[in-house]
Amino acid sequence: MVQNFSMNLPNGVRTPVYYYDTKLLDRTLGVLNDMSNYPGFKVHYAIKANANPLILKHILNSGLGVDAVSGGEIQAALNAGFSPDKIVFAGVGKRDDEIQLALVHGIECLNVESEAELDVIESIAASMGVKAPVALRVNPNIDAHTHSYITTGLAENKFGISVEMLEPIVYRCVASHHIDLRGLHFHIGSQITESDPFRMLCNVVNNLQDYYGNLGINFPIINVGGGLGVNYDNPDAEPIPDFRTYFSLFHKYMHLRPGQELHFELGRSIVAQCGTLVSRVLYVKKGLNKKFVIVDAGMTDLIRPALYQAHHEIRNMTSLSSEEETYDVVGPICESSDVFDRDVKLPITKRGDLLAFRTAGAYGEIMASRYNCRELPGSISD
Fold first, then answer.
1. 281: which of 70, 125, 159, 353 fits an S-S bond (Cβ 3.0–4.6 Å)?
2. How high is the pLDDT of residue 55?
């Protein structure tokens, strides 16, 4: 966490740079494993949140599996040492070569998003002489009350198969010689901070299980995705998310069948708080009505504020001033959207100061780009 971070970066370390508190990561993983210790519960880490090899090493050691959404993420998981039978493959647009990669390595499951995708998976599996293990992603039409860009469970979203279209696809899978129907998959969104959407999801799943059970069709796996949010406003108040409430809710409301597994795909809640983007102040610019702190990090290094209007707590790590001023904190990218936050109160800030952008361990480094021909940010850890 930032309060334990040295006021001076190690020699030779350039900004912007991601700092990872691996002690906090290990504590988070320990609490997660303790709180998810219910019969049949299995957690896969959503590698799209952060695929830094150091992060993956700690997650591997904790015993979690991996949720991947591309062939590249599957390969990153394999390279990190994860067993193929603990990798699941989601994603709305799987390429043929990615499907082949998954089947060649014998991953645990492919989460199917449409009948068109099922056609391709079945055809590829037939050509390879194998049965593809699949779970059908169902769109439960639940509003997760989060940003529209990260809501995935509404009827108009691109993800999943609507409940009304599900039954013939289920029967097709059951009858197929090259599909092994392993389960049903759900994911209603990200950065969910209320319990109601998860409770509603349990009700949808329970009703579907009752319906198909009466037809003699049972599912070994129910996958409820992830989505648990974190505290961006005050990270020190909640460095580890409330895993106890999250998992106990599913234990209470989800009616699992004997021997059935309940899978989770958590990403942000595992790694967000352990990561901080450290940036150096280049200039303090005085406008007519505002003061701007211009830093060497930009939307190329942390795109969430520009893309989602997301908030990250900003701290001046080096100012010794007891006085505060109000600034807009902006980056160097040639885009008006390259703004980290507006009207931020900081200690009096000057050129050379180090600013910390908190809660940046998820969807930070992994989403960095080389727009404006900028270098990708590096990373360090404690």
1. 353
2. 98
